[in-house]
Specification:
5-stranded antiparallel sheet; mainly beta; two-stranded antiparallel ribbon; single chain
């Protein structure tokens, strides 16, 4: 979730179901099984580590899609 003023939480990914989902789906429609960490690159892409599935997934703020970049 992103935080915006004043203290509003905005979800960026996940549909509430906890399993690995396919790639190239809208981030808010994707199933996400927790995270082991997150990072943001200079372009604004968000990387989420999924240790249970041994993957790193990228959430693109431009396309709004989730893709697997490692694993």
């Amino acid at each position: 979730a992103l935080f915006t003023a004043p203290a509003t939480i905005v979800p960026i990914a996940g549909n509430g179901e906890f399993y690995f989902d396919r790639d190239n789906v809208p981030a808010l429609s994707a199933s996400v099984n927790g995270s082991g960490g997150m990072a943001v690159d200079a372009a604004g892409n968000i990387y989420v580590a999924s240790p249970e599935h041994r993957r790193v997934r990228k959430i693109s703020p431009f396309s709004g899609l989730v893709t697997t970049v490692a694993g």
